[in-house]
Specification:
binds magnesium ion, MetN_ABC_transporter-like, alpha/beta, 4-stranded antiparallel sheet, single chain, binds adenosine-5'-diphosphate
């Protein structure tokens, strides 16, 4: 589904990504771990060209999205993204937050979009919040709505950048549960997280990034159970 080769990204003189090569298969759940500043967010943002790579190629479903004449808007619709901060529209209801992009961008009818929103609200366990406003929701509820909103565009892949890092501890589980169910449903997912228990349980593959490169990758059992690289071992010793 995604094929990244020799991805480099610099901000001025700061070279943040230094040659990332990775392939992500359909239905795969890839969890990216690594220390702060290692380039995890930059990598994720390059995948949907929220950041323009300095060099390298990204193929999405066989199409090069890094070549200059590619229309990224059409591709972005197929990539849902959920950030640490939920960025819901404060003056729109929960239902409107979910339906605005499908109506405006996908040209869905209001009825169709409302129906899909109702199904998604059920999926994330928040059907009763349809007419509420974001400030009436807890952090965990807002993040579940942010996930529903991304899913409303019927993406082919979901990108998550530390979706639980800004939440109070008691709300982390409800968001991870929604993500776990999404994974079990076959969604292709790339997830940056510090939740190592979740990574081990739900990830098909773990990528350990440090210093702008993928230092090590493998199954959760390989990376958590028998890390090969000293930097991986050092990082895991600090976080586990
Ligand atoms: P991580 O998500 O692993 O913590 P980031 O990808 O956010 O790492 O950041 C990696 C490096 O890139 C950091 O040194 C950061 O300061 C730098 N960086 C990230 N985004 C920008 C930006 N928009 N402009 C300049 N530097 C940036
Ligand atoms: Mg980050």
């Amino acid at each position: 589904m995604i094929d990244v080769s020799q991805l480099y990204k610099s901000y001025g003189k700061n070279e943040v990504l230094k040659g990332i090569d990775v392939t992500i298969g359909k239905g795969e759940v890839v969890v990216v771990i690594g220390p702060s500043g290692s380039g995890k967010s930059t990598f994720l943002r390059c995948l949907n060209l929220l950041e323009q790579p300095t060099s390298g190629e990204i193929l999405f479903e066989g199409v090069s999205i890094t070549e200059p004449k590619h229309n990224i808007n059409a591709t972005r619709e197929k990539m849902g993204m959920v950030f640490q901060h939920f960025n819901l529209f404060p003056h729109k209801t929960i239902q409107q937050n979910i339906t605005i992009a499908p109506i405006k961008v996908k040209k869905q009818s209001v009825q169709e979009a409302d129906q899909i929103a109702a199904d998604l609200l059920k999926t994330v366990g928040l059907s009763d919040k349809k007419d509420a406003y974001p400030n009436q929701l807890s952090g965990g509820q807002k993040q579940r709505i942010a996930i529903a909103r991304a899913l409303a565009m019927q993406p082919h892949v979901m990108l998550f950048d530390e979706p639980t890092s800004a939440l109070d501890p008691e709300m982390v589980g409800e968001v991870l549960d929604v993500m776990k169910r999404l994974a079990e449903g076959g969604m292709t997912m790339v997830i940056v997280t510090h939740e190592m228990g979740f990574a081990r349980e739900v990830g098909d593959r773990i990528l350990f990034m440090d210093g702008g490169v993928i230092i090590e990758q493998g199954t959760p059992d390989e990376v958590f159970g028998a890390p090969k690289n000293a930097r991986t071992r050092d990082f895991l010793a600090k976080v586990l």
